[in-house]
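Shape matters. Shown next:

___
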Amino acid sequence: MATGTEEFIDVTTAANYIPEKWSPEIIEAREENFLFEGLVDISYEKGLSSGDTIHVPHKSHLDARSKSANTAITYETVTESKTDISIDQHYYAAFAIEEIVDAQSFMNQKALYAPGLGYALSEEVDTQIAALVQAFTQTVGSLGTGTSVDNWIRAEQYLLDANAPMTEISAVCSPAEWANLIKQDYFVKSNYTDAVGKISPKAQGAFFGNALNMNFYRSTNIEGDNTNGHDNGVFHKSAMALVRQIAPTTRAAYDVDYLCHKVVSHELFGIAEMRDDHGVWVKGK
């Protein structure tokens, strides 16, 4: 044992007696507001019991023709096209926990991670629908540059030109574009409402106002980044479709070979752009 005027029992010499503690509180990854599923058409799921493709037939308008005296009328033959929805997106999320972990951990690992299975699957669906926005051939604005009121008015005009119903129109934008919009005089003075329609509680957190006959939402899941810009969009509900053939389904099993609990959740779905003239790619921040 050392002695001297500068010898102490300090944190180094007493290290064996100073415990390290684990907090019962955790720092959990923040969740995004998934909203696209509630803003697109899901009606094509009706009657889907088998198969891997849904053929959606189109119906065109008939033409009016001038009738001349003493002449026979002519009849119109319409050859219709179709839009296909391929049910080909099969995704899963899974984790496995060794039984020894259950015995030694002070926190229930299954309870900790099980809710994340559904979140992971929802994120994939939301991301894929968000990616469809840049497929719209009608565009306004420029990537990396904040939009103007005129951009959003022109976007709505595109929908008016296509006779899109002026209900269930959504405008989705990134937080960067949101920050640009709320500083503009028109949006500041607009009479924003609290009506959010039939969307999930999580999506309601993304709603920030109604203007120009459109419900405005912000999401961190919009494609792009703050440097190069984002793929914001305006679209009627019928512009895009989501079909789930297998809703998120969870399976669990015990693996005796590895002495572990295995949990997996999976889903099978398809997405498609249904009406190109009912959507606009709004390039901006």
